[in-house]
């Protein structure tokens, strides 16, 4: 049975006065029995259900006011501070954390924000991959400082954004510090190598890095023996064809007695076929027999016409040419005479 | 030794004198192999064996 507890009591035959009645109402206490003895509410409490409440902070007279459950929690959670609130269950909709709020402990299984920044603090363990989800991707926003002293960033990618002030230690020759990449030194002394009189000698490794640099003396004058015939121009244009301007073979010999060869080039031997009749054999064959032959001689006691000419009955070949020496004749005047000249010169151009 | 190569011809005998330049890098045998007409017999002889009088040069004969 519900009951009132007051400081006012009445004795038998006592007089009921207005003051005593006021004492009953002004000192009314509601005991728990008043509530516990009420019928228990079996239906689910809805936000529209109502309670009685004394609105004390507005200076009300103390009369009870009705209030909905919705308004009760909305106003008190908005305006009040609760030092310790234990919440269980799942928050199913988005929540905004005020800029002054601090999350000191707990787990945020999936933080998604298109605008929020984590500007300060430490994420002790940022786990990605198979342990908590298939992948965590920062699609936009800024990570002001990302520190990892013991962890490993297996795959750091940014397809559209910029990773600024990145410091990391890389294996190899390249370092990144505060967003600045620096290629390691190769050991080569800084400087300019090579000049008009010195040519640079550079050693380049597989990465294209110059690992050694020195210089060598450069001379505009070719070294002796460095310009060989093979290096002469053989261009078809007359202006450049140096090779065609050099003799392909030449020989100087004494034809008197046993042939005595004085000097020669590209001539392996001279065949003495008879008096004033010689074959010049080439060491290296010429392109063909269409070469130019020039010859001159000095007679041995013959005062008229110590000549050299190609033997009429022969054809020059790429390997030899048959010449005659002596005195050429004139038709109707005298016949040619072959003689052994003491000095014969034969030049071949091709 | 001053060596020469001789071989027979229709006019008698031909005498090959190798150039000093050629002999710097080749042997006289190599010279004979190159400059004696193919199929011709030849001999390498000392130059002193060749007559110095060439008056009858066409009359010289090759002897095996």
Global structural class of chain B: alpha+beta
How much beta of chain A, percentage-wise? 25-35%
Total DSSP E strands of chain B: 3
Largest sheet of chain A: 5 strands, antiparallel
Output the number of helix runs of chain A: 3
What general outline of chain B do the C-alpha atoms trace? globular
By secondary-structure content and strand pairing, the structural class of chain A works out as mainly beta
Q: Could you give the count of β-strands of chain A?
A: 17
Radius of gyration of chain A: 60 Å
State the main characteristics.
heterodimer, A: 350 residues, mainly beta, five-stranded antiparallel β-sheet, four-stranded antiparallel β-sheet, 3 helices, B: 64 residues, alpha+beta, three-stranded antiparallel β-sheet, 22% helix, globular
Write structural notes for this entry:
- Chain A is mainly β and 350 residues long.
- Chain A is built from 3 helices and 17 strands.
- Chain A has helices at residues 18-26, 32-36, 69-79; strands at 4-5, 29-30, 50-54, 64-68, 174-177, 180-183, 198-204, 210-217, 247-254, 260-265, 267-274, 277-282, 292-298, 307-310, 320-327, 337-338, 343-349.
- In chain A, the strands form 6 sheets. In chain A, strands 11, 12, 14, 15 and 16 form a 5-stranded antiparallel beta sheet that branches. In chain A, strands 10-9-17-13 form a 4-stranded antiparallel beta sheet, with no helix packed on it. A two-stranded antiparallel sheet of chain A has the order 1-2.
- Chain A is rod-shaped and about 200 Å long.
- The N and C termini of chain A lie far apart (144 Å).
- Residues 128-135 of chain A have low confidence and may be disordered.
- Chain B is globular and about 35 Å long.
- Chain B has helices spanning 20-25, 28-35, and strands at residues 3-9, 12-18, 43-46.
- A 3-stranded antiparallel beta sheet of chain B has the order 2-1-3.
- Chain B has 2 helices and 3 strands.
- Chain B is of the alpha+beta class.
């Amino acid at each position: 049975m519900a009951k009132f507890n007051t400081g006012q009591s009445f004795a038998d035959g006592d007089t009921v006065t207005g003051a005593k009645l006021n004492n009953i109402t002004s000192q009314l206490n509601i005991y728990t029995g008043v509530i516990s003895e009420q019928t228990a509410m079996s239906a689910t409490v809805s936000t529209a259900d109502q309670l009685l409440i004394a609105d004390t902070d507005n200076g009300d007279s103390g009369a009870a006011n009705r209030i909905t459950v919705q308004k009760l929690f909305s106003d008190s959670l908005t305006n009040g501070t609760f030092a310790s609130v234990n919440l269980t269950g799942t928050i199913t909709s988005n929540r905004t954390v005020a800029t002054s709020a601090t999350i000191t402990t707990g787990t945020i299984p999936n933080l998604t924000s298109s605008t929020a920044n984590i500007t300060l603090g430490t994420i002790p363990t940022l786990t990605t991959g198979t342990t908590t989800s298939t992948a965590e991707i920062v699609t936009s926003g800024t990570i002001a400082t990302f520190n990892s002293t013991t962890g490993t960033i297996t795959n750091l990618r940014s397809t559209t954004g910029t990773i600024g002030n990145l410091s990391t230690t890389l294996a190899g020759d390249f370092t990144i510090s505060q967003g600045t990449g620096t290629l390691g030194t190769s050991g080569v002394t800084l400087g300019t190598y090579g000049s008009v009189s010195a040519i640079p000698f550079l050693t380049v490794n597989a990465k294209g890095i110059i690992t050694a640099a020195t210089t060598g003396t450069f001379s505009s004058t070719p070294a002796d023996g460095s310009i060989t015939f093979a290096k002469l121009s053989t261009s078809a244009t007359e202006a450049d064809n140096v090779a065609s301007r050099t003799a392909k073979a030449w020989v100087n010999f004494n034809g008197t007695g046993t042939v005595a060869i004085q000097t020669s080039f590209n001539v392996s031997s001279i065949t003495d076929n008879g008096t004033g009749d010689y074959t010049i054999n080439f060491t290296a064959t010429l392109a063909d027999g269409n070469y130019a032959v020039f010859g001159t001689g000095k007679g041995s006691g013959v005062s008229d016409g110590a000549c050299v000419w190609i033997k009429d009955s022969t054809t020059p070949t790429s390997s030899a040419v048959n010449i005659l020496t002596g005195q050429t004749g004139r038709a109707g005047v005298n016949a040619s005479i072959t003689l052994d000249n003491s000095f014969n010169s034969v030049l071949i151009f091709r | 030794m001053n060596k020469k190569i001789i071989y027979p011809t229709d006019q008698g005998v031909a005498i090959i004198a190798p150039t000093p330049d050629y002999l710097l890098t080749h042997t006289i045998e190599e010279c004979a192999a190159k400059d004696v007409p193919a199929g011709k017999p030849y001999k390498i002889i000392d130059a002193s064996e060749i007559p110095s009088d060439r008056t009858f040069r066409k009359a010289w004969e090759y002897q095996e």
